[in-house]
Structures are given as C-alpha cells and as structure tokens.
Design a protein that fits this description.
Elements lengths: L4 H25 L3 H8 L3 H8 L11 H15 L5 H15 L23 H4 L4
Helix pairs in contact: 1-2, 1-3, 1-4, 1-5, 2-3, 4-5
Length: 128
C-alpha cells in the first residue's frame, strides 16, 4: 500500500505536535484543559489524552522539532500567534530539515535508515 507523506503528517506528526503543545501549555504556562482545547481546536478529552500520552504516543519528535515547539508554545501562550500557524511552521521545519522518515514517521538516524511499515489505523480496526 502506498502512503503519501501528507498522510503521515496528518496521522502521526500533527497529533504529536499537538501533544507536545498541550503538554507545554499545561506544564509551563499553567493553562487549563479547557483553554488548551480551545487553542488547539480539539476536545477537552483529547487534551487529556495528549497529556496522558494515550493519544499520539507512537512518534517521538526530534530534539530540533521539540525546540521549535517550545518556541511556538511561548508565542501561543502570549497570544502572539495561533496554534494553526505554529503547527504549520513546525511542520515546515520538520520537512526542510528532514527530521522524520516520510514512510514510518521514525527519526532518521543516518542515510541508511531502515524504514518500518506503518500500522494503518483503519486496517488495524478491521480485525476487531
């Protein structure tokens, strides 16, 4: 099955970025789950799952991406930028610096990266 890089971003990378922003806003800026949910455009339950690592737990973001997310979180907390604009900016950094494998979402350690297949959510659910 062929997977587009944009699908990887939607299924794995964007939720991981949201997870990190939610955690940052909660821990570093003392934002409530309601406020974080409003900022990210998700439910309060989704925020709880992000913070408890029950959602978007498959991807560990690269250290450079985490630095960008930390900057983004500060801008968002001060009301200087929106979550959408900052998530878009972080995605651009990840793309430009090639911080993740386009197929499996795992960090690229070297040029001989051994890609693993993705477990597609909709295929996994067929067996339930």
């Amino acid at each position: 099955m062929y997977t587009l890089p944009q699908e990887i971003e939607v299924w794995y990378i964007i939720p991981a970025i949201r997870r990190e922003i939610a955690m940052c806003l909660s821990k570093d800026h003392n934002a409530s789950y309601d406020k974080i949910a409003y900022i990210l455009g998700v439910s309060k339950a989704a925020v709880s799952q992000y913070i408890k690592r029950k959602r978007a737990s498959r991807i560990k973001l690269h250290e450079k991406a985490m630095e960008e997310i930390s900057r983004s979180c500060a801008f968002i907390a001060r009301g200087k930028r929106t979550a959408v604009s900052e998530i878009t900016r972080v995605l651009e950094v990840i793309r430009k610096k090639k911080l993740h494998c386009e197929i499996c979402g795992e960090m690229i350690e070297d040029k001989y990266h051994d890609c693993k297949k993705i477990n597609y959510p909709f295929i996994d659910n067929l067996n339930d």
